[in-house]
Amino acid sequence: MRTRRLLIRSGVIAAALGACIVAIPRSAAADPMGPVCSDDTCEVGVQNPGSDSDIDVEPDAGGEDAPPAGGGADTSPFADCTFTVVETDAKTHPLAGDRPKGKYSLVVETCTSEAGESIKRAQWVAEGADGQVRIDPALLAQQAVDRLTLPRPVIEASPESTQLVNLPTWLAVSEASWQVQTATASLSDQTATATATPVEAVWDLGDGHTETCFDRGAEWVRGTDPKAESECGHTYTQPSAQALDVQVTVTWRITWEVVWPGNAVSETAPDMTTIRTDSWLVTESHALVTR
Predict the structure, then answer these.
(1) What CA–CA distance (Å, rounded) separates 290 from 278?
(2) How far apart are CA 62 and CA 57, in angstroms?
(3) Which residues contact 104 (CB under 8 A, 6 or more apart)?
(4) Which residues pair with 231 in a beta bridge?
(5) C-alpha distances out from residue 193 to 140, 165, 233, 268, Å
(6) Which ranges of the chain have pLDDT less than 70?
(7) Contact at 8 Å (CB) between 41 and 148?
(8) Contact 42, 152 (CB under 8 A)
(9) In angstroms, what CA-CA distances link 54 with 103, 199, 209?
(10) DSSP assignment letter at 176
(11) Element (H, E) at 255
């Protein structure tokens, strides 16, 4: 019995787009999870088979993981899933049942835990006219999405940290942390490209107010009226007894496209977010304002 291994991290195979596309049912769909972050970047992960976890494992300012938004951490012990196309003349298989009439290949999915345990599922799938078994574009796209690395927002506010009562604060994240990100995955003649585009920055200013900006914002530049307000900004009206926890959450729009000879398919995936927190003290000043 010979095997051809198709390495897949995790995912759900959608309905076939043609006779040449593998379609394997899963017990639960694998939705993209929020990025897992280091100090400066966030790597996107995918949900393990059987997991109900949702989106976002975000670190706080110290780089430690904060509780996930929208659900608990992934508790499934199984990860590192592979799909194997098994070339066999067998008429039946204990996991896939009887082989249908026609040209069908046996595809076995194996997921392994860190402890070395494994689970398997199997399905007979029709071969294409060229004899190839191609995976569903949605699966290859999930691989590309899984490879995205999203930068954590870098706060570039003015003033930088200590804010003054009644002086407009200009809010911004750095250009480097507001750039389109891409990643690819390929298998045979199929290529998937995942694209993450920053579309929104929501600022929690620590005083009960929030500000939503649809670009990275802008830094105050020398020569501008110190009392001028930014379209993405906030003005504190009361001093703070202690430093305020300020947080910016950037939302990323995720899209993907898979191409192969004579075909192309594109779709959107759930949005993802990256977060940065900082501490700002708000004081009163009776001196000349300088930035």
Answers:
(1) 22
(2) 14
(3) 124, 125, 126, 127
(4) none
(5) 9, 47, 35, 12
(6) 1-39, 41-83, 111, 286-291
(7) no
(8) yes
(9) 38, 21, 27
(10) G
(11) strand 244-260
DSSP 100: P
pLDDT at 77: 55
The span from the CA of 111 to the CA of 121, in Å, is 9
For residue 53, what are the contacts with CB-CB under 8 A and spacing of at least 6?
33, 47, 68, 71, 72, 73, 74, 75, 76
Q: Report the C-alpha gap between 77 and 269 in whole angstroms.
A: 24
Provide the pLDDT for residue 120: 85
Token pair 């049942």 in the structure block, residue: 97
Q: In a 3-state reduction of DSSP, which class is residue 138?
A: helix
- Write out the two tokens for 149: 């690395």
The residue written with tokens 């300020």 in the block is 246
- Whether the bond between 159 and the residue before it is cis, its omega within 30 degrees of 0, is yes
In single-letter form, the type of residue at position 198 comes to: P
What is the spatial order of strands in the sheet that 149-151 belongs to?
Answer: 36-37, 41-43, 149-151
Taken as a whole, the chain contains a residue count of 291
At 61 the three-state DSSP class reads coil
Instruction: Give the side-chain half-sphere CA count within 13 A for 144.
Output: 29
Q: Is 47 left (phi over 0), alpha (psi -120 to 50) or beta?
A: beta
Regarding pTM above 0.90, the answer is: no
Q: Where are the beta strands (DSSP E) in 99-153?
A: 104-113, 118-126, 149-151
